[in-house]
Amino acid sequence: MANALVSIQIIPKTKNGEDVIPYVDRAIEVIQQAGVKYLVSPLETTMEGDLGQLLDIVKRMNEEMIQVGCPGVLSQVKIAYNPEKGYTMDQLTEKYRG
User: Fold this and answer.
1) Which residues, in sequence order, are bridge partners of residue 8?
2) At how many degrees (to 10) do helices 51-67 and 21-34 cross?
3) Is 98's pLDDT higher than 80?
4) How much is the pLDDT for 17?
């Protein structure tokens, strides 16, 4: 059962001011490879699952930015955590779907 939602906006620093979108795409690939449920939005990506696993993914995303040549990265992270009842994206958005 998913007990957490983690949303991340990853902002890679680039060496020569190049477009960050290819780097963001690579960060999203890290999530895809992890196999967790996720939703890409215009300004952030939300993942659903075990809190520890999701935080490990956030760590890997940041490490990947350095590995692909970014001198630094800024990540804005939001966490919704409930170990007893859990959280799901569907649960928090169902009233907005028609």
Assistant:
1) 45, 77
2) 140
3) no
4) 87
